[in-house]
């Protein structure tokens, strides 16, 4: 059955990797009807707005967005277009898989983990933020709610159960930030008691960073707060070869947005060498969300096979190919 999604082609390398990704999805037979909308610099150039109402309306209607990287201009307005979208649609769960692909630039061959990050509270809320007029002092509150903690931890356990994962690790700093992350840890332990089929442990964030570098294979699903999740998920991307292989999903009760988590890379825009893998892996997450599980599996297998054989891959993956030749190799495999 054909389903409609909202597509944002993005800025910088965004249009290049999105066009390549849509070509692969078409070859896969993903049965998607695309509603193209604007955001970022492209939207500002055409409409005068960074995030037009038409784009928000489209995402509201389809419930699913596939988004290439956006550029937030320096200066006033949005702190981040991505944060604005997450806040508008209450996309409280950020899901970042990190999986080793043979033939990539990864330092490890056995990483297969998922970071689940609370997306709407904590340090990024910026409640009461201000800087003194003389620049001598700055403040910002870190806020957590029991509801926010419970729903993200339960999301992580439900994801683990659906994906056949065996362990959830709760990452915190409750030894020092006893109130805010202490609440997160306390609620996580309560929620864990409802999932006796899944092992649960907890780890202080600095130790988690060290253990990820030393023994990443011990991790399965990590669930943590907004700031720690932002840091840890990029650390995990580094374990598997970088942000070029790092997809992300932002999921709420009614809406989900899937994206490449790297930037718009204006320095290589138009050169035809951008790696579309992060966006395609995000598309695989999207297909799973739409319960197109076989197509998601075929897409991931094709990506892994092309990388392992170095078949027309882009320079960041050690190849001599282009965005288009890499897409050609993937199209051949998914058909």
Automatic annotation (TrEMBL):
Pfam families xrefs: Iso_dh
Highest taxon listed in the record's lineage: Bacteria
Entry keywords, A to Z: Oxidoreductase
GO MF, one example: isocitrate dehydrogenase (NAD+) activity
PANTHER family reported for this sequence: DECARBOXYLATING DEHYDROGENASES-ISOCITRATE, ISOPROPYLMALATE, TARTRATE, ISOCITRATE DEHYDROGENASE [NAD] SUBUNIT ALPHA, MITOCHONDRIAL
UniProt record similarity statement: Belongs to the isocitrate and isopropylmalate dehydrogenases family.
Protein's name in the database: Isocitrate dehydrogenase
Lineage: Bacteria, Pseudomonadati, Pseudomonadota, Gammaproteobacteria, Chromatiales
